[in-house]
Design brief:
Length: 450
């Protein structure tokens, strides 16, 4: 197998892997780097000769995996795009939102190359999409050789899959972004446990050990308690959150908490994309045993759309829970602008429910001490940190120990580290080395053969 990581910045970002197994050439995912905009946010597709891919696989619809798929597919018009049924539904909403965001960035950030693609590219991409059922191998033939592609339910987010590629010579397993725990909406991953030659594993949480007292359910209890206290004191709660997956999960958790009267009944404000995705989740769950979701939850929590135009520092429309993207409070997103209104008042709370990269505003806010000033650079605004700031570990990614246990079960000859910061990959390198497999921590844009 040949493997090239096309994400030029390394770590987690514009995820895109270019692979060759027994003469079959394929790419897995083609994302957009969340911390950059325009040309800097792209994977380097130039290393793949035009129209040379036999197929493309999309593991799931987070934009760091999906955001440049229309570009890659445009360069390889004959390559079918294999994905789950769930991703075939969700990708449409995510990509059309992505065009709107790029249109806005074009003038805001003065990037004339935006948008990177248009509606026509999306229609062409949709015509190349071939949804596959999980656990059902698809056989492809070329030059008298054959290869099998199988998708497996990966937890993580609705529609997410892991991938097995089996040629006559090699069996390769890609975890993709994977979560073994069941969530309220979604069953945990079901990877196959057959031995493999090559394992390509995500390493997101390599740098994070889980406190045994902070299992997922305990973290949900802690999060609800922090929410209850804030609301009881007359404050509002900002939950910066991914619009895809985490927001729908949180709607169910809040609905349950309202019913049990574990938190006072207040309005819940959601961003438009998250509310639209609720309808897609509803539709997918009717055709899936792994996703449980009913759009009635919006009504039952009394969800309301955010006001269209958010003005920095302006008082909130009313006391409530603000369930809005982005999860890392990235510049100019609703969570970023709302934080200007909430941060300076000690009755409010800003509660993070996932990982925040240290270089993002969310990561920086978590590092800022109470009463210190916090600068919203992008909009030239400063507020003292008076609101309570907490982070809860509700990650959508497997704990590192679980991934090590999986690697042991699959007993690969080669392990390729993927989707993780350098420190995380280092932890996996040293922890996995006693297994005796060859471990590759690929440099971006370098081809490895194994
Ligand atoms: Zn993801
Ligand atoms: Zn990811």
């Amino acid at each position: 197998m040949k493997f090239t990581d096309l994400n030029p910045h390394g770590g987690i970002g514009a995820n895109c892997s270019f692979c060759e197994v027994d003469g079959f050439r394929f790419a897995i995912d083609s994302g957009l780097h969340p911390k950059f905009a325009g040309a800097e946010s792209l994977p380097d597709h130039s290393l793949i000769e035009r129209n040379s891919l036999d197929f493309i696989i999309l593991t799931h619809c987070h934009l760091d995996h999906l955001g440049t798929l229309p570009l890659l597919s445009r360069e390889h018009p004959d390559a079918p795009v294999f994905l789950s049924y769930g991703s075939s539904v969700i990708s449409r909403r995510m990509l059309s939102n992505s065009i709107s965001v790029m249109r806005r960035q074009r003038s805001e950030l003065n990037l004339p190359e935006l948008p990177l693609y248009g509606r026509g590219d999306l229609s062409s991409l949709y015509s190349r999409m071939k949804p596959l059922s999980t656990d059902e191998p698809l056989t492809l033939e070329k030059d008298g050789r054959s290869i099998e592609v199988t998708l497996h339910h990966a937890g993580h987010v609705a529609g997410a899959v892991s991938v097995t590629i089996r040629s006559e010579k090699q069996r390769v397993f890609f975890t993709g972004d994977i979560l073994f725990n069941d969530q309220r909406t979604l069953n945990g991953a079901r990877p196959p446990l057959a031995e493999v030659d090559v394992l390509v594993t995500e390493t997101t949480r390599g740098h994070t050990s889980r406190d045994p007292n902070c299992q997922r359910e305990a973290e949900i209890v802690n999060l609800l308690e922090a929410t209850r206290k804030t609301l009881a004191n007359g404050g509002s709660v900002l939950l910066p959150i991914f619009a895809l997956g985490r927001m729908q999960e949180m709607l169910l958790i809040l609905d349950e908490a309202f019913r049990r009267k574990a938190i006072p009944s207040v309005p819940v404000f959601c961003s438009g994309l998250g509310m639209d995705l609720v309808n897609h989740f509803h539709e997918i769950s009717r055709n899936s045993n792994d996703l449980r979701f009913n759009r009635k939850v919006l009504k039952s929590v009394g969800a309301r759309p955010l006001p269209r135009k958010l003005i920095p520092g302006r008082d909130l429309p009313m006391q409530g829970i603000y369930l809005v993207s982005s999860g890392m409070m990235v510049e100019n997103t609703p969570s970023y602008v709302l934080a200007t209104s909430m941060l300076g008042k000690d009755r409010n709370s800003i509660l993070f429910v996932g990982y925040c990269d240290p270089s993002t505003p969310g990561g920086k806010l978590l590092e800022t001490q109470p009463d210190e000033p916090f600068e919203f650079k992008e909009i030239d605004w400063v507020e003292p940190v008076r609101a309570k700031i907490h982070q809860f570990d509700l990650s959508g990614h497997a704990d590192r120990e679980e991934l090590v246990a999986l690697a042991k079960k699959l007993s690969p000859k080669t392990i390729i580290l993927h989707h993780g910061d350098p420190e995380s990959r280092d932890w996996f390198s040293s922890t996995l080395s006693p297994l005796g497999a060859k471990i590759i921590d690929p440099e971006p844009l370098v081809t490895y053969e194994t």
